[in-house]
Amino acid sequence: MATWAQRLRAGLSKTRDSIFGLLRAGKIDDELLEDLESTLLTADCGIEATTWLLDELKARVRQHRLETPGELRQALSELLENLLAPLERPLDASGRKPFVIMIAGVNGAGKTTSIGKLARHFQAQGRSVLLAAGDTFRAAAREQLAEWGRRNDVTVIAQESGDPAAVIFDAIAAAKARGMDVVLADTAGRLPTQLHLMEEIAKVRRVIQKAEPSGPHEVLLVLDANIGQNAIAQVKAFDKAIGVTGLVVTKLDGTAKGGVLAAIARQCPKPVRFIGVGEGIDDLQPFRAKEFVEALLGP
């Protein structure tokens, strides 16, 4: 079975190949730097991050008299790692019991699947987990969580229909009564443009605070890496509504270009708690900047 590093490297292969194609050129000149700029923009790095990377890169070329594509790649790796390092802040679920994690995102981002993988992550740490099926609008999401709970011996609190806030309130009460360590609270997928639905998710957050005055202890937003610059708009909209404290970036193994993390770092630097590269139960892992850059730009 492939290691996590190998799966991450495979997921980012398209962007890596396009950058390496450029850096096989014989010399560093204006044309190469312009082509690199276009490649970074195409990789969803966004204008701000791309401009910063290119400006810093040109400064290093001048200061250190870089001449070979290999030297340029090394400089780009160092700059990208510096840019992404502040996003690397692992989630610490100790200190509160139950530790209540509210999870939000648009439909299709991989939210419900990610909840199952997060439950597995906490179980591997020896923590007991309870899932709250707060996406009462989608029967499939409820059934998906229930099935996952059955397979992995995780308690799922759900209702056939009704108020998602009430489901999550009941789940927190149950977790307290049973002495559970972590509550993962699913919420209905919604678009940031649906203002009435964004208000509904804000209500869920307020109800969590009633059930657990110190909570939610983490508010995770699940982002599909393939949506590029739309990710920035989603982070800003959800942050305004519910106060996002961390990100889960999924589907980096699809057509994703990987640069969206650079855009996040420059435009809305929320901690990236986890990244995902596949459908497997272990294909969601804590984000590590050095590991990510090596997968993207390593030889």
From TrEMBL:
Positions contributing to GTP binding: 105-112, 186-190, 250-253
Location in the cell reads: Cell membrane; Cytoplasm
GO biological process: what's one of them? SRP-dependent cotranslational protein targeting to membrane
Q: Does this UniProt record's set of keywords contain Cell membrane? A: yes
Enumerate the SUPFAM superfamilies for this protein. Domain of the SRP/SRP receptor G-proteins, P-loop containing nucleoside triphosphate hydrolases
* Domain of life, source organism: Bacteria
Q: Which NCBIfam families match?
A: ftsY
Functionally, this protein is described as follows: Involved in targeting and insertion of nascent membrane proteins into the cytoplasmic membrane. Acts as a receptor for the complex formed by the signal recognition particle (SRP) and the ribosome-nascent chain (RNC). Interaction with SRP-RNC leads to the transfer of the RNC complex to the Sec translocase for insertion into the membrane, the hydrolysis of GTP by both Ffh and FtsY, and the dissociation of the SRP-FtsY complex into the individual components.
- Name of the protein described by the UniProt record: Signal recognition particle receptor FtsY
* Organism of provenance: Candidatus Nitricoxidivorans perseverans
